[in-house]
Specification:
Layout (H helix, E strand, L loop, with lengths): L5 H4 L6 E5 L5 H9 L3 E6 L2 H13 L10 E6 L12 E7 L8 H11 E12 L1 H10 L16 H9 L3 E9 L3 H11 L7 H15 L4 H13 L2 E8 L1
Helix pairs in contact: 5-7, 7-8, 8-9
Length: about 240
């Protein structure tokens, strides 16, 4: 399930790419097979890093032709263990909403991105997220949960005021919004509830067949009720 579009991020061969808050590695894996480059994934959770590594070891090279290399490690977004101007591209997807001092994380992204480099940022969209918070306190009120709801224009200003230039914006995961509303209504931890379980099959069908009818319908919903807002910025 990719949120950041690698074509818009313009990942090229030889690039050094950082996936900040990589989680289970969905964008790390996508970059690895997209172009021959170096992808570094970092996250605060060691268990997440182990799962991300399993994704590489289980399918080390699906094409038999990839020359990409990867690295994974635990790191704090407020104190990244990298030198200034290290990365050609940076991905930070669904991370900033978890960080109390997220402006420091933006400063760190700026610091490690090369001049002229590009970043892809995504956070939950304001009004779908607002409804989730209204329907269920458990959705966000737990360790490591969402601690803020971003207004897109405010987030854009946070980046442009620090020396980034907005390149593009779009929305993603239109089919996921009703799914999370349903989970909030039935109980966010009840992922095996009848309605939730069957809706999840629809999401799997979307991901497994990106050119199918379900995926096409999801793309129609993206600008209307996409769960995430996605920005692309260039560093001056």
């Amino acid at each position: 399930m990719q949120t950041i579009q690698l074509e818009k991020l313009d990942v090229k061969e030889g690039h050094k790419v950082l996936d900040l808050g990589c989680g289970h590695g969905r964008h790390c894996h996508a970059v690895y097979y997209h172009k021959d480059c170096q992808i570094i994934g970092v996250d605060l959770g060691f268990k997440d890093i182990l799962i991300a590594r399993e994704g590489f070891t289980a399918y080390p090279d699906l094409t038999g032709q990839s020359k990409s290399v990867f690295g994974l490690g635990v790191a704090d977004a407020l104190h990244l263990p990298f030198a200034n101007n290290t990365f050609d591209r940076v991905i930070c997807s669904e991370v900033l909403e978890h960080i109390p001092d997220y402006l420091y994380a933006i400063d760190e992204i700026l610091r490690v991105t090369k001049p002229g480099g590009r970043i892809g940022i995504s956070v939950p969209r304001f009004w779908p997220e607002k409804i989730c918070w209204f329907l269920s306190a458990d959705y966000h009120n737990e360790p490591g949960g969402h601690i803020r709801i971003f207004r897109a224009t405010e987030l854009e200003d946070d980046f442009t005021s620090r020396g980034f230039i907005k390149i593009a914006r779009h929305w993603a995961h239109g089919l996921h919004t009703p799914y999370w509303w349903l989970r909030c209504l039935l109980g966010v931890k009840r992922d095996k509830a009848f309605g939730v379980r069957h809706y999840h099959k629809l999401l799997v069908a979307e991901m497994m067949n990106p050119k199918g009818i379900v995926a096409a319908f999801g793309k129609l919903l993206d600008p209307i009720m996409g769960k995430s807002v996605v920005y692309y910025f260039d560093k001056k």
